[in-house]
Every structure is written in structure tokens, then in C-alpha cells.
Amino acid sequence: MTDLTFRPALPDDAALCLTIRGLTRENAFSEEALRALGITAESWSLGIQDGSCPGFVACVDGQRVGYCFGDRDTGEIVVLALLPAHEGRGIGKTLLGLMVGKLARQGFKRVFLACSSDPTVRSYGFYRYLGWVPTGERDAFGDDILELSLG
Length: 151
Prior knowledge:
Elements: E1 4-8, H1 14-23, H2 31-36, H3 41-50, E2 55-60, E3 63-70, E4 77-82, H4 91-105, E5 110-115, H5 122-129, E6 133-138, E7 144-149
Antiparallel strand pairs: 1-2, 2-3, 3-4, 5-7, 6-7
Helix pairs in contact: 1-3
């Protein structure tokens, strides 16, 4: 039996979060690709520390296996990532729920995220199944903007 726990992200989690992001099955980003977008272990750690990029981490037997982060100022779910070996266990759904709950407690009535517009990508069905709806907008990368009403 494995021990599955969830906790708020700590600044020291940022470096491993970058590594996990590169190991996801779909929509993986290498550390180099993230750096090109201005995302580094240092910037991510600072966002966790100053509260501008809060998040939650999932651990299995004490090892970090996934995470979800949001933007405190906009209500955006910035990233949800999980190691492939831990998919299908409800971990991603729980992480997303924890982050949505935190943003709701901060007063957001609507949260949003960018999601692939390709129906063959797992995230496409995942978010829609959980009640997220397309806004009709797309981001700079061509991904659909989905929203979830909280009130």
C-alpha cells in the first residue's frame, strides 16, 4: 500500500517541479524550453515564496509525483503536471481541486486555464469532464481557454 499525501508547495519544490514538467506524458516542457519562457527554478521558487504562484504537491511514499499551481492575481490555473506512472488514480483531479479551492477562498468567482484544442489529447477530455467550459478564446499558443464558474 502506498502513502499518498497532498501539501502546499514550498519554494524548495520548484527545481523538482521543473524536472517533473519535462517527464509528463503529454505537453512536456524541458527546462530549456521553460527557461526560454522566463520560467526557472529561481523564478518559480520566488513565486511560491511571495505567494504570487501558490500551488499544491502530491507525494507518494514521500516522493513528489505531481503538482498544480495557480496565479493569485488572475485566477488562472497555470500548470497541472503528474508523472505518467501515477496517472489514473485521481491525483490530478485532487490537485486541481485543491488549487481551485484556494483561488475560490481568495474570492475568485471564475477560474481559467489554457488547454489543448486537440480532442485526442488527454487534457482535452479531462477538464471538460470536470465541468470546465470553453470560452471561445485561444491563447498565443493556440490552446483553448477554459473556465470554471465558482459561484
